[in-house]
Amino acid sequence: MARRSLPLLRHLLHDSTVAAAAPPPQPLGLAGSRRSVTYMPRPGDGAPRAVTLIPGDGIGPLVTDAVRQVMEAMHAPVYFETYEVHGDMSTVPAEVIESIRRNKVCLKGGLATPVGGGVSSLNVQLRKELDLYASLVNCFNLPGLPTRHENVDIVVIRENTEGEYSGLEHEVVPGVVESLKVITKFCSERIAKYAFEYAYLNNRKKVTAVHKANIMKLADGLFLESCREVATKYPGIKYNEIIVDNCCMQLVSKPEQFDVMVTPNLYGNLVANTAAGIAGGTGVMPGGNVGQDHAIFEQGASAGNVGNEKLVEQKKANPVALLLSSAMMLRHLQFPSFADRLETAVKRVIAEGRYRTKDLGGNGTTQEVVDAVIANLD
Amino acid sequence: MARRGLPLLRQLLRDSAAASSSPPPLKTLASAETRRSVTYMPRPGDGAPRAATLIPGDGIGPLVTGAVRQVMEAMHAPVYFETYEVHGDMATVPPEVIESIRKNKVCLKGGLVTPLGGGVSSLNVQLRKELDLYASLVNCFNLAGLPTRHENVDIVVIRENTEGEYSGLEHEVVPGVVESLKVITKFCSERIAKYAFEYAYLNNRKKVTAVHKANIMKLADGLFLESCREVARKYPGIKYNEIIVDNCCMQLVSKPEQFDVMVTPNLYGNLVANTAAGIAGGTGVMPGGNVGQDHAIFEQGASAGNVGNQKIVEQKKANPVALLLSSAMMLRHLRFPSFADRLETAVKRVIAEGKYRTKDLGGDGTTQEVVDAVIAALD
Hints:
2 copies of one chain form a homodimer. In chain A, helix 2 (60-74) links the parallel strand 1 and strand 2. The first copy, chain A, is an alpha/beta fold.
C-alpha cells in the first residue's frame, strides 16, 4: 500500500481534490484487540486528503512536527496545510478558519491562553466559530505504563460551546463581578444525542450524566432532562446520573464503574483532566472536538497547557497524545488501516518502555520517541 | 479528669450556664504519630461543660451522630448536646435550630439530603448562608494502616462557602434557555484568602495554592486571584502559587504530595475536596467543618449532602470515622485539646489495627462495632 499511495500523493499534490466525509470519532479503547475485518475501500478512497495544521505555542510545534514525521514515514494519504496561530493574537486569522471549513479536519497543538483580562481564549473561539459542540477525551490504561488505577477506560464527552464558558462577565459595581452560566435545551439535547450515538456506535454499555442539579436546579436540571429524554430512545444502553462532587470521588477510588460520561462544559473539563490523570497523564490521552461539519483533533485534556520553557528547550515534550489523536483523525478520514498501524506502533513503544518522556517516568526526548514509533511501524 | 467532670456535668445539666468564648480557627489532625508534648494548663472554669447543638439529619446521619454521642459519654467529655430534628425535605431550617446554634456557637451535624430539581433549596447551603459560615475546611490525609493508591497526602482544602456558583440565582430567560449567575465579590474573596493564610500560619503550613479558572472566567476568577495575591503579600513566610483547576485535578491524582493548603471558590472547592478525600481514603474518614466569624458547624468533611443509601442505613454499616474525627476538631475548637487528642488517637488506633472497618474501607463491620472498638481504645 505504501508504493501505491506515493505516486498518488505526488499526483494529488499538484491538483488538490477533497473528498467529503463526516463520520463520528472512534475510541482507541483496549490495547490487545486487533481488527480482524479487512477494510475494503471504494475506488478513489486512497486519494490524499488535505488537513489544516496549526502548530500553536510552546510544545505545539514540537509535537505537531512529530506527527508530520510519522505520517510521512507511513506514507499516509494526508498532507498538511500549515498556519501559524499564537495564543496572544486577538482572534484566529480568517484564512485559518477558511482553510478548516474547506478541509473539514484540523490537527492542532495547544494555544496558550493568557490569564486575566484582555485576550479571550483562541481555543474556545475556534470551537464556537466552527460550532464544535462535542469535546471527546478517551482515557484508558496503556499496557506497560503502570498507574495507580487499573481497568480505566472512560470516554468523557463534554459540551463545548455554552455553560460556564459563555464568556459573559461584567463588574456590577467595583468589587462585585457576575459571571453568567447559560444552559440551553438545544445544546444539551445535541450533546446528549452525540453521547448516546457514540456509545451505540462503539458498543459501549453505559452513559453517565454528570451534574450538580441539587444546587443549580434549573440549569443542570435542564441538562438532565435532555439527557433523560435521549436515554429513552436507546433502551439498550444503561443510563445513570451522578453528582459531580461524588463523581470526582468515585473517579479516584473506583474508576472502573465509568464508561461514557456526558457533562456540561466546566465539569467536563475537570472530569476529563482527572480521568486523564488517573490513567497515565495528559501527555498520552487522545481527544478531539467535533461538530456537525468539522473536526479539530488535539491533545485530549488540558489543551491550553503548552508545557513550560524547559520542556521546549530540551525538546522533551510527550508526542504520544497527539500521535494517538492523529490516529483518531485518520480513522475520521476513513483510513482505518493507517490508523491501526499508527496506534499499534505507539502502543508497542510504550509497552517496551525504553523511550519515554519525563512525564511517563523516562528521560527520552521527543525525537527519540518519534524514531522509536517509526521503527515500530509495520 | 473523668471523675471530676461527671459531677460537674450533672450539676450543669440542672442549671444551664453556657460559657461564652470566641473560638480560634480549626487545627489540623494531620500527622498521625506525633503526640503533643505540651501539657495543657487550663484556666479555672475551663472544664465547665459546653452545650453543642446536634442535628442528626437524614439517612446515615442519626447513625453516625449516635456514634459520636456514645463516644463522648464514654470519654466523659464536658460537652452535652441539644438535639433538633431537621430533615432535608423541610422548606427552611426551623428558627429554633438557628437560635440554638447562635446561642451555643457550635453545632455537630449529620448530612441533610437535598432533593434534585426544582422546589426545596439545599438546607446545608441555607444554614451556611444564614450563619455566614464562609469557610469550609476539609482535611484530607493518609491514615496509617489504611492503604490507598496515593501516599504522602496531607491536603487542607479551604473553600469559599457562601457565593460563587452556589448563589442560587437562576432563571429561565425563554423556554429552553436558562441562565445561572455566578457572583464573585471582593469582600468574600478577601476574607476567605485571609482565613486560608491565617490557617496556614497558625498550623505551620508551608504553602497556599489558589485554584481558579481565570483564563476563561477572567473577571470573576480574576477578582478572586487578585484578592489572594494581596493577602499573600502580608505573609512572606508562606509560599503562594496558583493553579488552573483542570490542571489541578490532574496533579491531584498524579502527584498529590505537592499540595499543602488549597484555597478555592465555591464550586471548585467542592470538587477538589471530594477528589482529595477520595485519593486519601474516601469521604467516610475525612473530617471537616464550616466556620464563620461567630459560629461553627462540624460535619463529615466532603460530600455533606451524601447521606448514604437505604441499604447502609438498614444494615447499620455507615462509617462513623469522619464524624468522630470532626467531633475531635470540635473539641479542639471548644478548647478541650486533651479530649480531642484522646479521641483522635483512639480512632487512628482502630483504623491502624484494621479489625473493625466498615465496607467503604474494605471491611465488613457495622457502625456499632467500630464505636465499641474506639471506646475500648480510649485511654
